[in-house]
Amino acid sequence: MSQTAATPTSRLDPEPVARRDFLGLASLASMLGAMALAAVGMLRLPKAAVLPSASKKFAVQLPDSLPAGEPYVPPGRQVVLIRDADGVYAISLVCTHLGCIVKSVPDGFECPCHGSRFTGDGAVSKGPAPTPLPWLQVTASGGKLIVDEEVTVPPGTRVQV
Amino acid sequence: MSNRARDESALRTFLGNVWRAPRRLYEAAFRSGAPVTDRTRSDFVFSNIFLHLHAVRTHRWSLRWTTTMGLGIGATAAFLIALVTGVLLMFYYKPYPDVAYDSIKDIHFVVPTGRFMRNIHRWSANLMVVLVLLHMVRTFYTAAYRSPREFNWLVGMSLLVITLGLSFTGYLLPWDQLAYWAITIGANIAQSPRELTDALGLTAMFDVGGLQRQLLLGSDTVGEEALIRFYLLHVMILPLALAVLLAVHFWRIRKDGGLTRPVDADERLGPRAPNIYPVFTEIPQKTYHLAALVRGRTAAVGRGPENTVPSMPHLFYAELGVLMATTLACLALAIAIDAPLKELANPSVPENPAKAPWYFLGLQELVSYSAFMGGVGLPALAVIGLGLIPFLDREQRGTGTWFGGPGGRWLVLGSAAFGLLLPLGIEAIAIRCGWIREWFPNTPQLVITALNPGTLLALGYAVYSLWLVKRFNSTRAGALGLFTCAMCGFVVLTIIGTYFRGPNWGFYWSPTDWPTH
Predict the structure, then answer these.
(1) Which chain A residues in 60-79 lie under 8 Å from chain B, judged by CB atoms?
(2) CA gap B203, B210 in Å, rounded
(3) What is the ipTM of this complex?
(4) What is the pLDDT of residues A114-160, one digit of tens each?
(5) Measuring CA to CA, which residue among B177, B497, B510 is closest to residue A115?
(6) What pTM value is reported for the model?
(7) Exposed/middle/buried for residue A159 (C-beta within 10 Å: 0-12, 13-18, 19+)
(8) Nearest alpha carbon to residue B187 among B160, B156, B209
(9) CB B438 within 8 A of CB B452
(10) DSSP assignment of B268-279
(11) Residues of A with Cβ-Cβ distance to B347 under 8 angstroms
(12) Which is it for strands A103-105 and A144-153: parallel, antiparallel or unpaired?
């Protein structure tokens, strides 16, 4: 290091960084780095790796007496199943706006929270909902229907029973 | 001296010490003696760790009722009341779904004084929100955010956000229908950046909305994880953060030279009362400021800290008065109106209408047009805008005076009229004629996110305040206009959301018009 580094003439002048101070600063920086890493570890914790909610895939049997076009909501599920001449399809009942549960009405679905309306095939007809109600995957398996709430299918997809 | 005599004397001393112990205990705790002279009053303040947050002497301007109206102290008092009653409620509350509901029922119907404590807790929390908001309004209109108080204004903004967070997290804990659906909506608002990322096709790569919701709920639905998280935030993280920031907030007031006052405060106050002693009997001729070590303005030469009075009793008694008044208000409200408890949460059937706490109903009104803009975009804009005020308004005129600055109270009145009429007009159109999707059903979502009553309102306010800046050639005039408008908009939307929205968020003049179902 140069010996001619300006010596401060007043307590108010900043002092040049000496070698020992540099090492001190370096250790301080490494401590801050370690703390930042620790913070990353701690912030990682609250994001769950496995979600504790119940399985999104469930089996259901439609009642034989269910008339064509009549909505059927399996107990405790937020999905509606409808059987018509072409087959069976499932539509999610969770409003795409803010997650309220929509209600089946004669000409479609209606959300009680902010007044969104959906047509019978889930398209938005009124209100703040940004996207249509998704159609969910239904597969027929041994006389029962398997609905997977995590797999969406293009509107109009039906399964034959 | 014989051994016997020494024993006697030690025993005598011991007995004497026992006799005098209570008095010495008292003197150890209250070292400065009765605060009856200016000297012991000073001692009383600076030898006490809690009281020395205050200066020994307080300027007379700070003690005028109109300077602060006691709003900050009132908010602090409400926080303390909520803290005490909250700890009491924790004796019985169990943060687990369904059990939580039963424990609140126990508190309400079985626990001795339980219902009263829960009512006080609920009312003090509501009062705290109101007082914090009014305190911000006071600080803004008296231009008390100006240099060197910019940082404290930002601390205050953080305290406002934490206060709202405390209220919101407390809302879920009873686990009734009201709580469950308010939090479902709240969590989905946290997710609403998806509205934007979906429309732009980015959600698969960059799902900040989904991440926020998942961090808040610990799951993809409101369940036991969400309840534990809200409980932890409500009883631990947020109160701690609030307490720490509150200490900083108070400390900064002292460091920034006490409360803001106008430059001509001394002239406006007039001569001091005859019973107030001057600090210096002779005018000091030098300052004792350590200019080399301490930053800040030097004390005035040739003038003592006159026009100040001892903080004990003048300031402390005023503060105790505000504390008493706040407590009284909480008690009266708690006796008059019970905290609500609806039926047990049912994840399959939403409340209809499902309403958030009242201070979020203005936002819920905006959310009913666009989830992202109403719930995230505009609130973020408001918080950023509020935070920037002291850095954009660097003027000096009117500091410490109500509605100080160019335009003054007439500008504020005019802005209030505009600020009330604009949201009323926009809402009238939206309620009567619907919005873009009803007119053009195939409008892309991005257009609705960008063009809805909320964004139009914000745009109208912004244009108006820019016009004020130009007309008065002053940033403060624009700030006065924009702040007044924003507050009026908040009030109008909150009232519409609270009183005029019914089932399916439809507009009803009165709840008696609601359809029966």
Answers:
(1) 76, 78
(2) 9
(3) 0.84
(4) 888 999 889 988 888 988 999 999 998 888 899 999 899 999 888 88
(5) B497
(6) 0.90
(7) middle
(8) B209
(9) no
(10) HH-SPPTTSPPS
(11) 78, 101
(12) unpaired
